[in-house]
Design brief:
- With 219 residues, this protein is an alpha+beta fold.
- The protein has one domain.
- It contains 2 helices and 11 strands, in the order H-E-E-E-E-H-E-E-E-E-E-E-E.
- The strands form 3 sheets. It has a 5-stranded antiparallel beta sheet. The protein has a 4-stranded antiparallel beta sheet with strand order 7-6-8-9, with helices on one face.
- A hairpin with a 4-residue loop joins strand 6 and strand 7.
- The chain is elongated, with a radius of gyration of 30 Å.
Length: 219
Amino acid sequence: MIDDDRGFTLLELLIAVAIMTIVAVPLSQSLSLGLNTWQKLHQEASSAEEVLLLRRQLLKWISHSYPADPLREGDDVEYPFVGQQNSMQFISTLNPNPQSDEYYKVNLATSEGNFSVTIVPDHGGVEDSESENSKLFAVMIENVESVEFRYFQKQTLGGVWLENWQNQLSLPAAVKIRMQAIDNAFLWPELIVPIAVDEWSHCAFDAVTQACFSGGSAG
């Protein structure tokens, strides 16, 4: 057996480095591409899950809108549902429970690319310190370019979608929500939420006029 301790020549080292470079570059590119693809898929999955959770939450809140008596505190009118093109405020049970009679004022709006919710306990239209201290604000989803609300009003034959719901004693039959993301950060299929209740609360029905009394006249 012959021992050779000469090692590698400079030429041999250069050739070895060149071969390693040729092999490593496509391998590195492949790993980078795979990592970027995984990150993109992860982000898309996270966005899709975030959108799904938000849609479920909005469905629960809006569908359980409560037609609170607009005159429950006297002469000051407190409409139960006020809707505009890019924001809306309504009374809801949030978490429907037959053993609980707590209601909350929910405000949905978009500001600086964030779709947010503000929730305040509703004490019969009275804004007290307890309500203010219990106010909750949360960003529901980011990267929002625009939000569009529409409100369905029933008519004798069918109905019509309105841009605003103002000065109404009753609730809309449904709410339509369209949302556009910045740079297509997420996809938002049009959401239509039927509202479970469309009659006034504390209704004192008059058999003669076939209508409800509200406020103090409702008793």
